[in-house]
Automatic annotation (TrEMBL):
Protein name (Swiss-Prot/TrEMBL): 3'(2'),5'-bisphosphate nucleotidase CysQ
Family: Belongs to the inositol monophosphatase superfamily.
PROSITE patterns (alphabetical): IMP_2
The UniProt record lists the keyword Oxidoreductase: no
GO molecular-function term, one example from the UniProt record: metal ion binding
Record-listed Mg(2+) binding positions: E74, D92, I94, D95, D213
Gene3D superfamilies on file: 3.40.190.80, Fructose-1,6-Bisphosphatase, subunit A, domain 1
């Protein structure tokens, strides 16, 4: 990565942080106001007027500022043209729509700049909590302007994990006693941010997460000293024809190895 690249990504980070804040303010105007709701994915997933309004704000700001970048958003019809772009924005205007509609604070605007399949700038903004997470390739992860790092708790002590009860039930007993389940966190991106700032030691992510859930949080976690990987230890790639992912784990390195071992043993591998 050259100095020119670093300067560009920092400029992009400033751009997306400002855009995320503006979109967050738009979404906050609908919060606890019973916005109109529709259902997608064969009735499995809600989408609200707030999602569309925040998406529109992001699209108007970002595409005007970087017309040569591609675009992938949960709330914009996908266009395969993005696959020809080296650099693109990956957007979730509201990650945690169910929480948003339920009046819970744990939802966020997720914005990433991805180049050649990996994030180089990422922002998560949680408007109801007034929390801004940000990171740029080669830099440090920040929360409201202050550096954050993953937990350094010993792997020999019980760790706090966001993991589904049915998944934990399949783990070998010697792994279960080192895992303390935390209360369900409805926003996947925010859950990964909680790993990045050390509030929890890790999380297990079931299959069918999407690029827009992960890309910004992935970089923030990486720059905070953690990793988001598949069950073979590989980092996810973004801006592929298939935008969904198989099972993933996020944690600091020693915890990640232990979590992957437990998953491997439950699978009999």
């Amino acid at each position: 990565m050259t100095d020119v690249d670093t300067a560009l990504w920092r400029s992009d980070l400033e751009l997306i942080a400002d855009a995320a804040r503006q979109a967050g303010r738009v979404a906050l105007g609908y919060f606890n106001q019973s916005p109109e709701v529709w259902w997608k994915n064969e009735g499995r997933s809600p989408v609200s007027a707030a999602d569309f309004a925040a998406n529109q704000k992001l699209e108007s700001l970002l595409r005007a500022a970087r017309p040569d970048y591609g675009w992938l958003s949960e709330e914009t019809d996908d266009d395969a043209e993005r696959l020809s772009r080296e650099t693109l924005f990956i957007i979730d205007p509201i990650d945690g729509t169910r929480a948003f509609l339920a009046g819970l604070d744990l939802w966020c605007v997720s914005v990433a700049v991805v180049r050649h399949g990996r994030p180089v700038a990422g922002v998560l903004y949680a408007p109801a909590l007034d929390e801004l997470y940000e990171a740029v390739a080669g830099g440090v992860a920040l929360k409201n302007g202050r550096p954050i790092t993953v937990s350094t708790a010993s792997v020999d002590t019980p760790g706090r994990f966001a993991i589904a009860e049915d998944v934990l039930a399949t783990f070998p007993e010697r792994h279960k006693h080192r895992i303390e389940r935390v209360k369900y966190v409805p926003s996947l991106a925010y859950r990964i941010a909680m790993v990045a700032d050390g509030r929890i030691e890790g999380t297990f992510i079931k299959h069918n997460s999407h690029d827009w859930d992960l890309a910004a949080a992935d970089l923030i976690l990486e720059r905070a000293g953690g990793q988001l990987v598949d069950l073979h230890g590989g980092a996810p790639l973004y801006n592929r024809a298939r935008v969904s992912h198989d099972e993933l784990c996020a944690a600091a390195a020693p915890r990640l190895a232990d979590l992957l071992n437990g998953i491997g043993e439950r699978r009999g591998s």
